[in-house]
TrEMBL record:
Protein name: TetR/AcrR family transcriptional regulator
UniProt superkingdom: Bacteria
Assigned keywords, A-Z: DNA-binding, Transcription, Transcription regulation
Source species: Paenibacillus xanthanilyticus
Record domain HTH tetR-type: where: 31-91
């Protein structure tokens, strides 16, 4: 299959991400390129959020008109796709090796995904429209598959593991993102957990109406203020460990 055929089969934004679309030659000179446009859009999103990104705003930041941008990137949807792929250069493959235990490798994978949501709070605001088919997104998938190389799992099972861990990372990443935003807006970590409202809630959350929640609320476990607890669980670590335990148990049942 030649380059032109591949380009015709792929959505325009995807083809651009793979670099198989020739950039426009019209005009007195090559004023811009796709990477410059995407980088400018990412800079705006980093500073002001995804809602601030528009073709007009990006063009203006580069000193051009929106019509100039459309010669390179046909639509805002294509721009968002390219932004999403550009920030997925996570370097996971550089942090894993053949001899690494699979649990450690998958932890690195999940932590890298969560860090993406911290570094790019706007990332999760881009809707998921299908399976990843852009190069950097696929590199992330390839890294996860490399970690699972040799595990007694079918190809379909490996993809299910990736979906499971990616979904967990997305949930944790969005929660941490919202927590960070709340702190930036002036909220304290105690307020975010609900601790300042424990007294009032203890009266409102009655045993009759909330028979199983009330004991946790009174003990402080619900708001993370249980001083009598032997240990305070890290919710992320606890959840990820249980997921990895489940995968390990599943594989043990296959042998």
């Amino acid at each position: 299959m030649d380059e032109e055929t591949r380009q015709d089969e792929l959505p325009r934004g995807v083809a651009l991400s793979w670099g198989i679309v020739k950039e426009p030659q019209r005009g007195p000179k090559r004023e811009m390129n796709v990477k410059q446009i995407v980088d400018a859009a990412i800079a705006i999103a980093d500073a002001e959020g995804l809602t601030a990104v528009s073709m007009n705003r990006v063009a203006s930041s580069l000193g051009f008109t929106a019509m100039s941008l459309y010669r390179y990137i046909p639509s805002k949807e294509d721009l968002l796709l390219l932004m999403q792929d550009a920030v997925c250069e996570l370097g996971i493959e550089e942090r894993i090796d053949e001899g690494m235990p699979w649990r450690e490798g998958l932890r690195i994978y999940v932590e890298a995904m969560i860090q993406l949501y911290q570094d790019r709070p706007w990332f999760s605001d881009i809707p998921i429209t299908g399976a990843p088919i852009t190069p950097n997104n696929l590199k992330v998938v390839d890294s996860a598959l490399r970690i699972m190389r040799g595990l007694p799992l079918t190809d379909a099972e490996k993809m299910s593991v990736i979906l499971l861990l990616s979904s967990y990372a997305r949930a944790c990443g969005i929660l941490q993102r919202d927590f960070n935003r709340a702190l930036k807006a002036g909220m304290t970590s105690a307020s975010f957990s609900g601790a300042p409202f424990l007294g009032a809630l203890s009266e409102l959350v009655t045993a009759e109406r909330f028979p199983d929640l009330r004991p946790l609320l009174v003990s402080g476990a619900y708001t993370g203020t249980d001083e009598a607890a032997d240990e305070i669980l890290d919710d992320f670590d606890f959840g990820l460990a249980r997921i990895l335990d489940g995968i390990e148990h599943y594989m043990a049942g296959k042998t």
